[in-house]
Amino acid sequence: MPKLNFNPDKDIPDLAGKSIFITGGTNGLGAQSAVYLAKHNPAHIYISGRNAKAAEKVIQQIRDSGSNTETTFLECDLASLASVKKTAEEFVSSAPQLDILMCNAGIMAKPPALTTDGYELQFGTNHMGHALLIKKLLPLLEKRSSEGGDARIVSLTSQGHILHPKGGIIFDELNTVQENFWVAGSWRRYGQSKLANLLYARELSRRYPGITSVAIHPGVVATDLVGGQKFLQRAFIRVSQFGTLLKLEEGALNQVWAATADREKIENGSYYEPVGNLSQEWLGKTAKDDALAKKLWEWTEEELKDY
């Protein structure tokens, strides 16, 4: 059972003046994170997603909590690089600053499919969409860092990254649906995308040391990612995690901790399990492979060069 030793009401500091961008902030962990953070007086929270009606509910929940934080919905489909580019450029043109980027959105264990840009669906959504968003928003984060601000990127990965295929990331097959994973294929594709989130966060910290970049595992949480699985997969998750499946309110704790804890208590480029526990236990050789992280960065940059 993860150590739930973080109280968001008491342990999140005053966030006055901070601007926060949360992907997938219209439901699940992203929405709960927005609610937690809004109670501590940030200047502005931006929540991105595909469902404007869901966003309205989150914004109303924030208002009902008594928060005066301005909250704005940004329509964005991470499975479409054109959508990410449009959203990011509109944000940069209008937002005066960015302090915290929480890369929260994601999909899990989906059947074989491609994004609109021709990437394997889970890799394209979980990694490529966020990588382009990060690329576009890095100048704002660098600016905050250069001004002495506490710029952060919090990337949600998963213990499930250990399900990645042999070799970690099969670069030659990322423009296919990768149907050749005969055993637990949907989970191996998921593991590949979550490994990419972890490696990319560490490489970000190496290339942009002025920005605190960490990867976090939220725990296994009763969100739509679990509820949306087929019956047998859903049953497997619930049985295998019996006694440890977290409520939504618990699952959001690790990411808000990473976004707001004293910077001196956070090791840049590292991986944390709930709550705020620096973890090496789940990091195998592939997850610690700096050469693979560098290759992923360079491959991603080449893929995104026209954006």
Automatic annotation (TrEMBL):
Provide any one GO MF term from the record: oxidoreductase activity
Tell me which domain of life the UniProt entry assigns to the organism this sequence originates from: Eukaryota
* Segments forming a coiled coil: none
| UniProt keywords, alphabetically | NADP, Oxidoreductase
Pfam families attached to this UniProt entry? adh_short
**InterPro entries recorded for this chain?**
NAD(P)-bd_dom_sf, SDR_fam
Q: Which family does it belong to?
A: Belongs to the short-chain dehydrogenases/reductases (SDR) family.
Q: What is this protein called?
A: Uncharacterized protein
What's the source species for this entry? Answer: Penicillium cinerascens
